[in-house]
Write a structure and sequence with these properties.
The protein is built from ten helices and no strands. Helix 3 crosses helix 10, helix 5 runs antiparallel to helix 8 and helix 6 packs antiparallel against helix 9. By secondary structure, the protein is an all-alpha fold. The protein folds into two domains: 82 residues, no CATH class; 76 residues.
Length: 171
């Protein structure tokens, strides 16, 4: 865990050891970016997953809708494909308010050109149903955003602090 040795000072801020505390809004964005560049992607994904599941943060579907709105078209398509993989084919047609998207998303995978027709609110609805049907979708979305950590800044300081705490504790 050489990456942890490089980040010793930061470790004390988020681990609760040595009385360290981070200034959530100021430090977390910068610190998350630094850790995400140094830590293995599975460690980053686990931290993001913990933030999504925390009782201290908004529910996963709402957080994801916010991240979706801050993602570029390729990232939006990628995360939608993760969600759609959890729902299975034809699932959108049966979901209230989302039936109109079923023809748009019926091709098996979402393209960057298609994502401009999908709102963050619709992504929130899709994420709600996907998580209900397959709770492990949170882990897959976390792995996806571990590959795009710059977008995670939109999650906010508290969520990033929670992710950092778990990443730096190695849990």
């Amino acid at each position: 865990m050489e990456w942890m040795n490089q980040l010793k000072d930061m470790f004390s801020k988020y681990s609760g050891q040595s009385g360290g505390t981070a200034t959530i809004a100021e430090d977390a964005h910068r610190d998350f970016e630094q850790v995400a560049q140094s830590a293995p992607s599975n460690v980053v994904a686990d931290g993001i997953s913990q933030a999504f599941r925390s009782d201290e943060t908004p529910p996963f579907p709402g957080m994801l809708a916010n991240l979706f709105s801050h993602s570029n078209p390729n990232q939006r398509a990628g995360v939608l494909n993760e969600l759609m993989g959890s729902l299975g084919s034809g699932a959108l047609a049966s979901l209230p308010g989302l039936g109109g998207l079923s023809s748009l998303l019926s091709g098996g995978s979402v393209t960057p050109d298609q994502v401009n027709q999908i709102s963050p609110e619709q992504v929130q609805q899709i994420a709600t149903h996907a998580e209900r049907q397959d709770p492990s979708v949170v882990d897959r979305v976390s792995s996806f955003y571990a590959q795009h950590p710059q977008v995670m800044k939109a999650a906010g300081g508290l969520a990033l602090s929670i992710a950092l705490r778990h990443m730096l504790r190695g849990k």
